[in-house]
Design brief:
Length: about 425
Amino acid sequence: MHTATEERIVRPARNVLGSLRLPGDKSISHRYGMLAAFAQGASRFSNFSTGADCASTLKCMEALGATVRHLDEGIVEVTGVGGRVTPSEGPLDCGNSGSTMRMISGLLAPQQGSFTLIGDDSLSRRPMERIRKPLAEMGARLTLTDGHAPIIIEGTPLRPIDYTTPVPSAQVKTCVLLAGLQTPGLTTVRESVRTRDHSELALRAFGAELERTLDSISIRGPQTLHGIEAAVPGDLSSAAFFLCAAALFPGSGLILDWLGLNPTRAALLDVLTALGANIAVLNLEEKNAELVGTVQVTAPRDGLTTTAITGALAAQLIDELPVLAAIGPYTSGGIRIRDAKELRVKESDRIALVVKNLRAMGAEVMEFEDGLDVPGGQRLHGATIDAGGDHRIAMAFSVAALRAEGETLIQGAESAAISFPEFFTLLDQVAER
Ligand code: S3P
């Protein structure tokens, strides 16, 4: 059981106004950190994610022989192991981070030595068969504990595969590509929905060659990676909380600059536009193949309208669904979410927790196995929110609290630090009371 350690009161706001620059993207930071630690030579990153999840990745990579230094002005310097890790004495602790555990498994499976991967209670409940299966097809010796962590890997040379992911997952895709990077021959991953492509872009930035078609990505191993210098764009999934908050208040205005706008991540902007919000994207540029730009949002004068998120869109928006559901009651026609069963195996069962917490705030909501219906035109009241140890639930309901009547108490608010330690400070900066 997770025990809540920090409570936060979130008071209603009158408006959301201001401009912010957000800490670096979690997905990109994981990949830059892991690849830099595996590469030859040194890498330097500015605006690296400040979240605990990316710190878990760096810690694991340090335990495997890489050197990590935190320099002035938030610069992270990583010196890599040049393609061969040193097995650590103790287990590698992935903390709360599914990305760390699933991606590092692919990196370690073809290495020499044995490795044990562990995680916290939440991570130890999350499904790991999805990485065991393709790695086993490659010849990896990897043992799960009843489908979960701890994971024990006995490193061994692998053979390439052509693998179609049964559930769209960038973590699984990356796991296979990192094994393929070190495996002679052509490894291909095919997916029915194009998941975030940060790994492909990062691997290329570190000097690897990959071939891409509309629905597949292939890597011919073995290849050597070389250190880079890069600035990590702001995290669009963290920005989601602020964009949704601003979309709730007619008269609002929020500007987020140096924001990551990779098209495989940016579906939220389309959904907010479909809901009636005014979104402008300015100053687009490309950095290490990642799109970066400034986003300006203002709320529609007559309030948000209605939308349905189903099919491929649900997969592409998976991390943003909790906050979209949490603002659903404040739209005129509600928000309908389906094909999002994956939400049940994230850091928490996000469908169950969103439903529970919306009801605690007085909302009507219908729960389905793969989603939920949140009717619009509802007024919510402040309540006690159970974040369930899940960062995105803590932040989503802090946003819902801004338009509620009365104060909301977020129990387990410390979990925000998994991806976004600055969240509450920045929220206070832009929320007018
Ligand atoms: C991530 C992929 C997604 C996402 C997670 C981060 C990544 O998970 O939900 O927050 O960085 O690759 P899945 O790969 O399980 O879909």
